[in-house]
């Protein structure tokens, strides 16, 4: 009897506990308390190119923000509070990251802030972090980051007022700040820039092309015995004409002249150093072949040219890379022209160093057969220039660029190099209409986190990695990526990938970017073993403004020319749809559909996957696709014949 | 082993403890029946497999609690009613068929006590059947989460086991509401075949019918835009879905229109439970 009583009591007690817990879980707040700020270096950061970061003085303290999102497991760091505000105001930001639960900003009340000559905030130490919601923000002041005007946060309103009094600007609260339109140059700005950049490059070419038409003052063989003597005798702004023949000489051009070959002209060095070295602005080398340079990859000692060492962070790189032996070396020769030239390269074909505004066109560089023996076909170092209609084969790097902001490479052919085009610390470049075939490593490789590059209309075949852009806010469009191991490697963030045809690769697109901030739309994925593959990081939603991509295999039974439901190239069944018979039947099982129905929700918490919420029914780029053998394999999603249209 | 408090407790009133014991006996008998039933055990195992499987396919073990909730929501909306009906549709009918109802009628037990007792007993079984697979999933998520890339600072965001606990509680409540419907069916019919038929009918109505009715009402303007939140409470499935979304997913996604009126959804589920039990009481008392 008593035993029963006890059991009964126990049952009642257990029941009560369960009831209390059951109610309790709804009463307690699911969210944990505010996290503490973390070291900025530990955040997944954005808003500053590596090149700019390296270039900052030691005492510069740029305003920063770090954000803890409800659905993104990494802390996101922003250089410039305005970078966060702009991202936050973008469509779909909350869908991808959840809402910002806690935001910390640099607190300039905690330091004595000054502005450097460039307008960068400086202080003797890093500002402390303060909660953004209670901070005061000075907008429209003289303060800047390398990306432009910046917002300066203060915990104390009086400090903000004092700052605004001396450096201009007005004071707003966090709420007011989030309501402001903040302009940043994102990927769509890059897209809109492409035509202008082509036009500017045309103008550049037109301007420099006049160098060809300088009057002939000296003819080799008539006015002088050797080419070098002719160069030394020629007045500035005239042409040295080199008649048919092979000239065993090593040349130095230190005045603004044009060296023009007539007929079959070869300048052959003695296997030491650079064959033709030019150090004057507006130098032109036209219509000749160059051979016989030395084969030192790394330079040592002083570089040619009239610049003084400026102690920049990349000084050693510069001496090593741009000081190596080459067919033609242009140093501090701005607005120069190399046209109709072929280089039989021993190590590097052409070096442009601190030669901004130059043009290299109709040039052929043959590198040593083994890429290990070569360096670069064309090497641009601190030389925003135009490279067009060049052919580089068998090199280590076909075209290599270092800190050449605004470089244009177009209509060129790169064949059998290790890397076709290789950009280091080069922002705002335009790589367009190039044919890149059979690079043993990577077709186009953009490294070191630059910003706002445009990579359009290139055709890349047969590489380990076809197109491998890094950095942010770039525009990657209308490229044809075929027969590579990995067609498109996505490391760049905040970038727009559209209209690319990714076909016949082992892996169509491989995503490694940690931030889910890319716009991926209207690309066509056809006949890849795997259309896409994703690494660590949140679910990537490859749909922008309701437009997705064409995935060979995604299908429709509804007859409305839209794919039924979403498509996930990383899901076990979807990824087989285009190459395994029966996968479609399995994909339509209620069990899978029940799960996939909500696939796009809480993307920030899912890892290692890609989903397209609105796949397109037909390929988006039929013309480009027609250049592959698989145009007829890119079938429409429609499985049911459409009735007559109403 | 005899505490002194026991005597006053015993002497307080003779009839209520006796009745309570009767109720308890019925409930305990139901628990035993459920525990002994091989088919229900099999059902429980199947549910466990589905829950664990869905969590695995959706990569929930590595992704966390909230993504798992989202993955599990639709499958459970469909499966929990099936399981609940299986638990209840023969409960009272079985008693009747075996003649136990006739036996019970010789005891001083009212129809209400019988129904509540049967319901309570089966409810314990059902609650355990639903809670255990979800608890297993929760443990798997807790230990199975892949470590974030360590070079970056990470945090758990809005994800939390609390959210999963809410989901578990709501799923059990949802199951209990459908169980009451099953008990009502069981008390209304007189043969196994008709019990099966009526159960299938009830399932179709629950799984599809009510939601479609709301859609129709909305499309035809019978349900006004401002009434939708309350109309949703009338369908157990929608009430459950709304409650889950409101108390878990919305915590992480923040802004946007309200997805449910929690109070009316809870009232809706409660009305379904109480109403169904009342029907059962009436039917048994016939």
TrEMBL record, chain A:
Protein keywords: Membrane, Repeat, Transmembrane, Transmembrane helix
UniProt domain Periplasmic copper-binding protein NosD beta helix: residue ranges: 382-553
The keyword Mitochondrion is assigned to this record: no
Classification via InterPro entries: N2O_reductase_NosL, NosD_dom, PbH1, Pectin_lyas_fold, Pectin_lyase_fold/virulence, SCF-Subunits/Alg-Epimerases
Region (Disordered): 291-312
Residues of the signal peptide: none
Bilayer-spanning residue ranges: 7-28
Superkingdom of source: Archaea
SMART domains: PbH1
Full protein name: Nitrous oxide reductase accessory protein NosL/NosD
Automatic annotation (TrEMBL), chain B:
Keywords linked to the UniProt accession: Membrane, Transmembrane, Transmembrane helix
Transmembrane segments: 39-58, 78-93, 114-143, 163-189, 196-219, 263-284
Gene Ontology MF term list: ABC-type transporter activity
Keyword match Ribosomal protein: no
Phosphoprotein recorded as keyword: no
Any single GO CC term annotated in Swiss-Prot or TrEMBL for this entry: plasma membrane
Organism for this UniProt entry: Natrarchaeobius chitinivorans
Highest taxon above the source species: Archaea
Annotated protein name in UniProt: ABC transporter permease
């Amino acid at each position: 009897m008593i035993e029963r009583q006890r059991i009964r009591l126990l049952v009642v007690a257990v029941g009560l506990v369960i009831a209390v817990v059951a109610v309790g879980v709804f009463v307690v707040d699911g969210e944990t308390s505010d996290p503490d700020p973390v070291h900025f270096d530990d955040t997944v950061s954005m808003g500053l190119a590596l090149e700019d970061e390296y270039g900052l003085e030691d005492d510069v303290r740029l305003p920063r923000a770090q954000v803890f999102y409800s659905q993104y497991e990494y802390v996101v760091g922003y250089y410039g509070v305005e970078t966060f505000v702009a991202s936050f105001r973008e469509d779909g930001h909350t869908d991808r990251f959840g809402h910002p639960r806690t935001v910390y900003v640099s607190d300039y009340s905690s330091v004595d802030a000054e502005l450097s000559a460039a307008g960068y905030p400086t202080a003797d130490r890093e500002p402390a972090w303060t909660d953004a919601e209670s901070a005061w923000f000075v907008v429209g002041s003289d303060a800047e980051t390398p990306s432009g005007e910046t917002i300066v946060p203060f915990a104390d309103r009086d400090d903000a007022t004092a700052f605004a009094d001396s450096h201009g600007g007005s004071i707003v609260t966090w709420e007011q700040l989030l309501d402001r339109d903040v302009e940043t140059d994102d990927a769509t700005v890059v897209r809109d820039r492409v035509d202008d950049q082509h036009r500017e490059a045309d103008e550049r070419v037109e301007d420099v092309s006049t160098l060809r038409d300088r009057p002939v003052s000296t003819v080799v063989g008539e006015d002088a015995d050797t080419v070098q003597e002719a160069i030394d005798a020629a007045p500035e702004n005239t042409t040295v004409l080199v008649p048919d023949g092979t000239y065993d000489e090593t040349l130095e051009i230190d005045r603004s002249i044009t060296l023009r070959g007539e007929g079959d002209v070869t300048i052959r060095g003695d296997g030491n150093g650079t064959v033709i070295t030019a150090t004057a602005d507006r130098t032109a080398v036209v219509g000749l072949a160059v051979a016989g340079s030395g084969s030192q990859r790394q330079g040592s000692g002083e570089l040619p040219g009239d610049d003084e060492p400026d102690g920049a962070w990349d000084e050693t790189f510069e001496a090593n890379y741009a000081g190596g032996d080459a067919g033609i070396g242009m140093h501090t020769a701005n607005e120069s022209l190399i046209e109709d030239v072929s280089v039989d390269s021993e190590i590097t074909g052409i070096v442009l160093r601190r030669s901004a505004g130059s043009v290299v066109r109709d040039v052929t560089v043959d590198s040593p057969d083994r890429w290990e023996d070569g360096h670069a076909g064309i090497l641009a170092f601190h030389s925003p220039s135009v490279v067009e209609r060049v052919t580089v084969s068998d090199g280590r790097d076909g075209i290599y660029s270092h800190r050449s902001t605004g470089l244009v490479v177009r209509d060129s052919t790169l064949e059998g190099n290790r890397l076709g085009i290789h950009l280091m610390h080069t922002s705002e470049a335009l790589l367009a209409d190039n044919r890149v075939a059979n690079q043993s490593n990577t077709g186009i490789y953009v490294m070191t986190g630059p910003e706002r590059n445009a990579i359009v209309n290139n055709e890349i075949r047969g590489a380990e990695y076809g197109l491998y852009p890094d950095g942010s806010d770039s525009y990657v469009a209308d490229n044809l990526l075929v027969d590579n191991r990995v067609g498109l490697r996505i490391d760049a963030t905040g970038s727009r990938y559209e209209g690319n045809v990714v076909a016949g690769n082992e892996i169509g697109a491989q995503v490694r970017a940690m931030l889910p901030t890319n716009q991926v739309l209207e690309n066509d994925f056809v006949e890849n073993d795997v259309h896409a593959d994703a690494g660590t990081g949140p679910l990537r939603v490859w749909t922008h403004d309701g437009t997705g991509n064409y995935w060979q295999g995604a299908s429709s039974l509804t007859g409305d020319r839209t794919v039924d439901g979403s498509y996930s190239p990383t899901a076990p069944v979807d990824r087989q749809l285009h190459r395994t018979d029966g996968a479609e039947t399995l994909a339509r099982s209620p069990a899978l559909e029940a799960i996939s129905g909500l696939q796009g929700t809480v993307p920030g918490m899912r890892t290692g996957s890609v989903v397209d919420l609105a796949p397109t029914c037909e390929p988006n780029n039929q013309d480009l696709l027609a250049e592959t053998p698989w145009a007829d394999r890119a079938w429409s999603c429609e499985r049911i014949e459409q009735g007559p249209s109403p | 082993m005899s505490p002194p408090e026991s005597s006053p407790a015993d002497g307080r009133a003779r009839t209520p403890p006796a009745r309570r014991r009767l109720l308890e006996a019925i409930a305990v008998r139901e628990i035993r029946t459920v525990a002994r039933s091989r088919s229900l055990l099999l059902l429980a195992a199947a549910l466990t497999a589905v829950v664990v499987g869905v969590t695995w396919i959706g990569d929930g073990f590595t992704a966390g609690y909230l993504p798992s909730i989202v993955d599990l929501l639709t499958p459970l909306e469909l499966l929990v009613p099936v399981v609940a009906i299986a638990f209840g549709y023969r409960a009272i009918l079985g008693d009747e068929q075996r003649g136990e109802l006739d036996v019970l009628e010789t005891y001083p037990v009212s129809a209400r006590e019988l129904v509540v007792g049967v319901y309570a007993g089966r409810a314990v079984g059902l609650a355990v059947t639903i809670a255990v697979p979800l608890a297993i999933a929760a443990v798997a998520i807790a230990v199975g989460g892949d470590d974030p890339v360590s070079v970056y600072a990470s945090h758990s965001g809005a994800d939390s086991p609390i959210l999963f606990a809410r989901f578990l509680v709501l799923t059990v409540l949802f199951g209990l509401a459908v169980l009451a419907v099953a008990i009502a069916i069981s008390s209304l019919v007189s043969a196994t075949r008709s019990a099966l038929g009526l159960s299938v009918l009830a399932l179709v109505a629950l799984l599809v019918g009510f939601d479609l009715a709301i859609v129709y009402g909305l499309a035809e303007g019978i349900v006004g835009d401002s009434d939708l939140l309350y109309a949703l409470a009338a369908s157990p499935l929608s009430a459950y879905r709304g409650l889950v979304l409101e108390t878990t997913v919305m915590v992480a996604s923040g802004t946007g229109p309200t997805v449910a009126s929690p109070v009316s959804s809870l009232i809706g589920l409660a009305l379904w439970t109480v109403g169904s039990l009342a029907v059962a009481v009436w039917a048994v008392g016939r």
